[in-house]
């Protein structure tokens, strides 16, 4: 099992990020859908749990072409679909994804306004405790802290787009960017941090360590690419309301259903 805590510092406010991440999620879902694979939105609706209110989503990610060859070789038919449930009670978010019984990935997110990644235990990990069906662990000892720098972290050439480079992008609406200073995370205003605590477990004997490491690397790549896009799409989401986003999500759901069975599998 791998426990990673990712800290992503963003040049926006916490309130702006709520709209920005929903907009970017809708757009990136379309980017990664086609050729029989991609995202299927089953539910996207408000929920209430006692005093807690938020948005519940249930999605299926069809990912057969994106998993390691060794997994595809031994996986039964249909086992490579990832099922994701999410409870978004902003600024807190819980996502639970699983592939049948072999694999689970759970991540908790907290968005903190004014933070620059300095909070040591933002999601209040217990020093020892039980998480779902997993044995008692010392979570803080096992946790790896990874600070993602959207401007300076290296990305693969296949993921690079000039128009999605924070070191080149300037927002006409807000005046933000480009993020050219090496220590921009310490000085940029406005600022907020996404703290993402990710638990990854793959339970197939013999390949567990290899696959968990692959998944952790993939998660970091996805977070980096997503937040680079989020920043470079500032002029697209800035000024949108939550209702604008809900309308966009509904249209995106319809677009995904049509696009999933068209064209080629996206090369992302």
TrEMBL record:
UniProt cross-references to Pfam families, sorted A to Z: IP_trans
UniProt organism field: Parasitella parasitica
Domain Phosphatidylinositol transfer protein N-terminal: 1-253
Membrane-spanning parts: none
Record-given protein name: Phosphatidylinositol transfer protein N-terminal domain-containing protein
Organism phylogeny: Eukaryota, Fungi, Fungi incertae sedis, Mucoromycota, Mucoromycotina
Gene Ontology annotations for the cellular component aspect, listed alphabetically: cell periphery; cytoplasm
Alphabetized GO MF terms: phosphatidylcholine binding; phosphatidylcholine transporter activity; phosphatidylinositol binding; phosphatidylinositol transfer activity
Gene name for this UniProt entry: PARPA_04428.1 scaffold 13078
């Amino acid at each position: 099992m791998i426990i990673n805590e990712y800290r992503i510092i963003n040049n926006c406010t916490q309130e702006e990020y709520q709209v920005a991440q929903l907009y970017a999620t809708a757009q990136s879902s379309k980017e990664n859908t086609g050729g029989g694979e991609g995202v299927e939105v089953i539910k996207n609706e408000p929920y209430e749990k006692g005093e807690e209110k938020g948005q519940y989503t249930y999605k299926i990610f069809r990912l057969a072409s994106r998993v390691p060859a060794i997994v595809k070789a031994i996986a039964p038919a249909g086992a490579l679909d990832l099922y994701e449930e999410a409870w978004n009670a902003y600024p807190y978010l819980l996502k639970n994804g699983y592939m049948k019984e072999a694999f689970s990935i759970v991540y908790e997110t907290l968005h903190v306004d004014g933070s620059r990644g300095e909070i040591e235990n933002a999601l209040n990990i217990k020093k020892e405790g039980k998480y779902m069906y997993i044995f008692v662990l010392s979570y803080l000892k096992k946790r790896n802290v990874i600070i993602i720098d959207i401007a300076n972290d290296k990305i693969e050439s296949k993921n690079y787009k000039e128009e999605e480079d924070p070191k080149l992008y300037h927002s006409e609406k807000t005046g933000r960017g480009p993020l050219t200073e090496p220590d921009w995370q310490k000085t940029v205003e406005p600022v907020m941090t996404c703290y993402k605590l990710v638990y990854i477990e793959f339970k197939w004997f013999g390949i567990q360590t290899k696959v968990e490491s692959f998944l952790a690397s993939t998660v970091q790549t996805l977070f980096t690419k997503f937040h680079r896009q989020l920043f470079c799409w500032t002029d697209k989401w800035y000024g949108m309301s939550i209702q604008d986003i809900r309308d966009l999500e509904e249209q995106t759901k319809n677009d995904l259903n049509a696009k999933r069975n068209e064209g080629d599998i996206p090369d992302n």
